[in-house]
């Protein structure tokens, strides 16, 4: 029996998206920049997908959707696209719990002389909007705060944060990769100027993503070339992947009202079955949380016999796929920077575990996973008596 519970890492490509991709590969394989019939058929596919992705976030203008190779490129285009508007270094604000697709461009800007403020978070991983007010400066040009944190599941107060940035005339970006298709997003109401999306988080193919750019917002492209994607992302579009992304986005929009409460019920069912494990500490904000997401820290993690990665390996041997939060460099585990930012000790930050649910997850999967999880943890920690008999 195999159970996949790592949907925040990637989702299986849904059959409808695969069918759309196969149709493009077989029939609409032209270059969408070409003026002849073959090119225009491909261009029509791209524009249809643009409308489908725009519908996922209720963007009024489909041309506000810029297709990229994924969420990482979308994040980089947002950060660096704004930064390259300026000839002299300015100031940007991010949070302590950003994805590396944000933290690494921010580090690069620092090497170029930019000032970067990293907002602290509370013990649940949330930014305090008052801290953003305090951090704003006269030369602040961009604020970027992740919408839903992939490791701990916390959903940030994006509306409040965006309103503060807008009141001060500062551009606001959010990485919504984990939120799209799981919670409603309406960019006509949400005070964001830039918003990142990824196809393979919503059952589309890997290798496709998008950046929503509010009309009137200027960016400098990362790539120089033929001027595709409204001049912001040169290069021949990956039409098959974009087509699959579009279909996945349209279906996610249709299914969201039913799928979100279903995932919440399953998530809470698993949480309830794991609460009797001493030493297993829930992480993140339970009230403001992604509907498909559970995360924990192993209180007695030592980075060797007991760690998040050790638990992941043992669960994998039992046929269940989950993930860990700590990183491995040269064979040595590093504590999760997200958990460290939330105030966890380096020991506890070695024990981060994430379980994320999806379309194929059933109640039977949840019950089996809870049973196996307890058995595996008991084998890893027989001397600690972590699991109640």
How is this structure best described in words?
With 389 residues, this protein is α/β, with parallel strands linked by helices. Helices cover 37% and strands 15% of the residues. It is built from 10 helices and 15 strands. Strand 3 (91-95), helix 4 (100-111) and strand 4 (115-119) form a beta-alpha-beta unit. The mean pLDDT is 94.
Describe, in short, the structure shown.
The protein is an alpha/beta fold and 389 residues long. It is built from 10 helices and 15 strands.
Mean pLDDT: 94
Strand count, sense and closure of the main sheet?
7 strands, mixed
* Series of H and E elements: EHHEHEHEHEHEEEHEEHEEEEHEH
Q: How many DSSP E strands?
A: 15
What portion of the residues fall into strands of 2 or more residues? 15-25%
Unreliable residue stretches: none
**Shape summary:** globular
Q: What is the CA-atom radius of gyration, in angstroms?
A: 21 Å
State the strand order across the main sheet: 2-8-7-6-5-3-4
């Amino acid at each position: 029996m195999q159970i996949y519970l790592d949907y925040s890492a990637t989702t299986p490509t849904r059959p409808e998206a695969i069918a759309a991709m196969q149709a493009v590969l077989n029939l609409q394989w032209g270059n969408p920049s070409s003026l002849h019939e073959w090119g225009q058929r491909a261009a029509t596919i791209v524009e249809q997908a643009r409308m489908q992705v725009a519908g996922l976030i209720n963007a009024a203008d489909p041309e506000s959707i810029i297709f990229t190779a994924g969420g990482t490129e979308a994040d980089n285009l947002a950060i660096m696209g704004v930064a390259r508007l300026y000839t002299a270094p300015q100031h940007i604000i991010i949070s302590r719990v950003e994805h590396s697709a944000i933290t690494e461009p921010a580090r690069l800007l620092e090497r170029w002389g930019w000032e970067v403020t990293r907002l602290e978070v509370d013990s649940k991983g949330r930014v305090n909007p008052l801290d953003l007010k305090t951090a704003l400066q006269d030369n602040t040009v961009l604020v970027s705060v992740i919408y839903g944190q992939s490791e701990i599941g916390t959903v940030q107060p994006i509306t409040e944060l965006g309103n503060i940035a807008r009141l001060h005339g500062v551009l606001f970006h959010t990485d919504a990769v984990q939120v799209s298709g799981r919670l409603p997003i309406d960019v006509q109401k949400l005070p964001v100027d830039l918003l990142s999306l990824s196809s393979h988080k919503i059952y589309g193919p890997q290798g496709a993503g998008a950046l929503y750019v509010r009309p009137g917002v200027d960016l400098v492209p990362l790539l120089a070339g033929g001027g595709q994607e409204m001049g912001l992302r040169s290069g021949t579009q990956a039409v098959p992947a974009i087509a699959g992304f579009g279909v996945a986005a349209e279906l996610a929009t249709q299914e969201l009202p039913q799928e979100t409460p279903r995932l919440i019920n399953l998530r809470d069912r698993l949480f309830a079955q794991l609460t009797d494990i001493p030493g297993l500490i829930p992480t993140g904000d339970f009230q403001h949380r992604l509907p498909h997401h559970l995360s924990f820290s192993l209180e007695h993690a030592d980075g060797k016999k007991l760690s998040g990665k050790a638990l992941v390996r043992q669960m994998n041997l039992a046929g269940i796929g989950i993930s860990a939060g700590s990183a491995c460099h040269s064979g040595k585990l590093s504590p999760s920077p997200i958990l460290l930012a939330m105030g966890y000790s380096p020991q506890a930050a070695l024990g981060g575990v994430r379980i994320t649910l999806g379309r194929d997850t059933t109640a039977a999967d949840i019950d089996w996973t809870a049973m196996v999880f307890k058995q595996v943890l008991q084998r890893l920690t027989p001397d600690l008596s972590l699991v109640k008999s």
